[in-house]
Amino acid sequence: MKRKLFYLLPFLLLAGCGQASYKNTSLSPEERAELLVKELTLEEKARLMMDASQSVERLGIKPYNWWNEALHGVARAGLATVFPQPIGMAASFDPEMVYEVFNAVSDEVRAKNTYYTSRDSRERYQGLTMWTPTVNIYRDPRWGRGIETYGEDPYLTSRMGVMVVKGLQGPADGKYDKLHACAKHFAVHSGPEWNRHSFNAENINPRDLYETYLPPFEALVKEGEVKEVMCAYNRFEGEPCCGSDRLLMQILRGEWGFDGIVVADCGAIADFYNDRGHHTHPNAESASAAAVVSGTDLDCGSSYKALVESVKKGLIAEETVDVSVKRLLKARFELGEMDEPEKVSWTKIPFSVVASAAHDSLALEIARKSMTLLMNKDNFLPLKRGGLTVAVMGPNANDSVMQWGNYNGMPPHTVTILDGVRNILGAEDKLIYEQGCPWVERTLIQSAFSQCKSDEGLGFTARYWNNLTHEGDPVTTAQVTTPFRFCTSGATVFAPGVNLTDFSATYNSVFTPKESGEIVLEVYCYGSGKLRVDGEEVKSFSNKHGARKTTHTMKVQAGKSYNIELDFEYLRSDAQLNFDLGFKKDVDIRKSVERVKDADVVIFASGISPSLEGEEMGVNLPGFKKGDRTDIELPAVQRELIDALHRAGKKIILVNCSGSPIGLEPETKKCEALLQAWYPGQQGGTAVAEVLFGTYNPAGRLPVTFYRNIYQLPDFEDYNMTGRTYRYMQDIPLFPFGYGLSYTTFNYGKVSLNKGEITDGQTVKLTVSVTNTGERGGEEVVQVYLKKQGDTKGPVKTLRAFKRISIPSGQTVNVEFELKDKELEWWDEQSNTVRVCPGNYDIMVGGSSRDGDLQQISIIVR
Predict the structure, then answer these.
(1) What is the C-alpha R_g of the chain?
(2) Residues of the signal sequence (predicted)?
């Protein structure tokens, strides 16, 4: 309370002599920002230009943390609805549904922000500026962060990205913006992760730049009116992206007229001068000056502290600094963050929307729409219940954390694939669960928690303090008799009498193994702490960006006692602590096959995990490097188990969970059906089961090409598009972009155009009839591609329109598209621009990008 009064004091003192002009809410955000900039010292300006913006107490400016995440739900801030990973949402080919998802996400963000600010908390992941969506082109399936994108096609990415922005930012006609979204990472940025802080994307063909890499960003700026753009870590043509005059000043602010905030990716300014980075600048003063001059307003980091020295040394004028500060203040006024909460209508959204039942239903609907059926031999699916024995196997069968993806929140519940199948089976059916193998390694973990005993009894004795330092007498002591599953989401304390925030804990037990072998102690937490064995610290952890896993492996002897002690301290948002320990057991494929010998069908949940593919990770297992992949094949241990099941005569349904295309060519010969389930969020297991048993008819389509093997790929570090994605690939992939099956069939009538010849500025109306010729209703994704005749250097085809439509059995729907300038533009070699160019064009219409699925009609552009 004292702190709040302190911030209000300047305004109370000013009340007798007139309101501070920049507090006048009748002025525009820009006018208010202009007035406030004049009141600031240079030192204060520099403090406002970092992601953890400090307060200016004499002016009543509160601290503000610009860094918040909402990739597919409110992230890293505890309780939230977890929707499918963006690559899965892209498979829905349903932009309107994506809008509904992010409208719900923005409701949750606003409700959580209101809750935090009511408690005078303004920490990271609590603000109103969301650093999403990721609209980089997924040019190579080996890139780990491709899971965060909307696929390999510029048009699809643009349509989805614009809807993300509109859903987050809310209607444009209100007094205050709902939230601010951020298009990232600008611009030529899609791996490798291992050298992203020093990598130089160079010799980029201008055509590839303007036809492939830039269109989604341009769409988000011009159509979505996105408020922020994040510049990338790497260099572009020799210059760090956050200091690239070409990208930021000429293209973004010049050609596109962007007047919003450019924020540096976290630590990107330090990459200008530090040892692991680009070495383009000698120190923070020169790097910071160069970045601001190039248009980068906000530093995620602390390099911009040096701007005071930059100005003193003449490296940058204070007036140039003012331009960036004004943009930042204007954004805060637009959000209402600088005004009293009761004046902002968005603060009326109740906290009850967070992880609500309505949002859970929405998570299920978008998960259903993301399900992509790739193979169904002899209509093996859907399965029929009634006396059916089903074995559920594989590393992703019972893994809720995998389903959450990355940059995720904490859902109140998760339906795993095993849960989904169990829930849908009838009373006469039988379920067998046998994991069989992990993702990559050849050992499984068998829990030994029951072999732990403290002085107080079985399990661990827990002591809790309502401080962060374990000081004083514990507020409570408890006995934990099962593997830890603690989380403060939903205002659930770790134990009675313990704070939701600002608490610490120590857990003690003695582990006396019944057998000798290798034991794994596994901590999955959002917080910090230490793990000790016999008084010696073996692991420490401090997870500040969401929950992460930490493990310690050691040899143990049967009958020998080991003292285990785990310290935990709360960091921020919702605390989480999972702990278990278990013996490493070698995978035994023969035994696993024997255990499912009575199964009529095996549902094998294959694939990988966000703990293996993702952002700059420490994973260096076979096939993975720093979050990227060095191979695209299904990991060998899974392949061997599937092969053994096939040889045993089992009918296998492969449910593949991944954020990237997996090389599944051998599996297409050994499995009856193949469903790509992505990382499907909290209701993913329900959606998978509904598809497998036919209560939902799938209609997802691939937003990325599924290649046969790595030999179909160009060099990972080559950013030119030759041979890449369906747009430039000459070879035949395993499954093409836009491909997906249904439990019904569709027949296309003849495509017609309202005119066969147009001039620049005219609109073409395309019509095609689509008939559902099957026995059940279903959805079809009608896709329209364009190709310029005679252009041997351009894409072989490129998506320019699509619609997901529902058609009842036996009925016909006339599907219409209006193709305007944006859909008909092409690369002009004469001017090095993308525009409507004269020439003869082929328009292709059908259910996927595969030539055999398309019919063609020509048009002349004069």
Answers:
(1) 28
(2) 1-20
